[in-house]
Amino acid sequence: MYLDRLLNQGSVPVLEQLATFTEARQSVLGEDVANISTPGYVQKDMSVDQFQQELAQRVQQADSAAPGSVRFDDISTDIQNPVNGILFHDGNNRSMEQLMSDQAKNALMHNLAIELLRSQYSQLETAIKEGK
Amino acid sequence: MFDILDMGASALTAQRIRMDTIAGNIANINTLRDANGKPNPYRRRFVVFAPGQAENDPRPGVHVKSVQLDQSPLPKRYDPGNPDADKDGYVKYPNVDLSIEFVNALEASRAYEANVTMMDTAKSMFNSSLRLLA
Amino acid sequence: MIESAANSLSKIAGINPAGAGAPSNGAAPTTSFADVLKNSINEVSKLQQDATQAANAVATGQTENVTGVMSAVEKADLAFKTLLAIRSKLMDAYEEIKQISI
Question: In Å, how far is A86's CA from the nearest CA of chain C?
C-alpha cells in the first residue's frame, strides 16, 4: 500500500487520467468521422469540460488529504450527443470542421499529458537510483 | 486495443466503394444497352451506408449495406433517327446527372481524407504513449 | 578538505564563509554550509510543488499557458538534479575522508 501511495502523488495520477480520457475520446471521434455519410447517425462526443471539472475537484480533495491517499481512477466519463452543427437531410448532424479540430486538440492534449508524465516518472527514477 | 484503426479502415473501404459506384455512373452516362445488347438504358446506382464494421459485426465503424438502383424517371430526348427510339421518336437516357456525381465524388474524397487523418492522429498518439517507457 | 570545499561553495553562494577572514563589519551574520543546504532543499521542494500545481492546472483546463508549465517542470527537474549532484559529491568526499588512516 505504501508503494502505491508513493506512485499516486503529485501530478502523476491527474496526468494518467487525462491521457486515458483523451485516448477514449479519440475512439469516439474516430467513430463519428467514420460515420460521416451514414444517414440517421447521431454524432457522439465526450465532454471535456465535465471531465476537467471532476478532475479539479479531485485535485482539491488530494491537496487537503494525506499524500497519495485520494484515488483518481473512478472519474466517470460517459458519451454524450452534442447538439452543435446543423441537421442534414439524411438525419446526420455532422460537422466535419468541428470533428477535425476536436481530434487535433485531443491529440495535442494527449501528447502533452504523456510528455509531462514521462518527466515525472524519470524524476522518480533518478531519485531512486540516487543519480547513478 | 487498436479498434480505432479497424474503424478507420472500414470507413476507408466504404468510401472507396462509394467512389467506385460514382465512377461507374459517370462512365455509363450514355449507355443505352445492357450487357446482352438489349435496349436497356443504364440506371444510376447509389450506395447505402450503415453503422457497424460489417453486416453482423456491431463494432463501431461503417459499411455498405447495399448498392441500389435509383428509381427516378429516365430523361427522354427527341431523336427519331436513333435505332433505339420508340414510336414517338424519343430515346430514354440514363438518369445520371454529372454535377450531382461530381459533388458526391468530392464529398467521398473529403471523407476519405478525413478518415486517413484520424488514423494518422491515432497512430501518433499510440507512438507517444509507447515513448513513455523509453 | 571538506571545509575548503564548503568554503568555495559558500563563495559561489555569495556569503562570507564562517571563520575564514574577517568580514567588513563585525555585525554581518555568517551562515554555515548546513543552512545553505537546508535552504536549497526547501527551494527544491517549493519548485517541485510549483511544477505539480502548474501541471495540475493545465490538466484541469484552468490555464492555457503550456510554456509556463513546461519551464516550471524543467526548472524543478534541474534543481533536483543539482541537489542530487551536490549530495553525491558530499558522500564521495565523506567516503574519502573515512579512508584516511590516522
Answer: 28
Cβ burial, residue C56 (10 Å; 0-12/13-18/19+): buried
Q: How many CB pairs under 8 A join A and C?
A: 53
Q: Decide if B17 contacts B64 (C-beta within 8 A).
A: yes
DSSP class of residue B29?
Answer: T
CA A109, CA A15: separation in Å to the nearest integer?
Answer: 10
| pLDDT tens sequence across B11-22 | 999 999 999 999
Is the pLDDT higher at C24 or at B31?
Answer: B31
User: Which residues of chain A does B122 touch, with a Cβ-Cβ cutoff of 8 Å?
Assistant: 26, 30
CA distance B51 to B11: 10
What would the grid cell of residue C27 be? 555585525
Percent of chain C with pLDDT over 90: 42
pLDDT recorded at residue C27 = 44
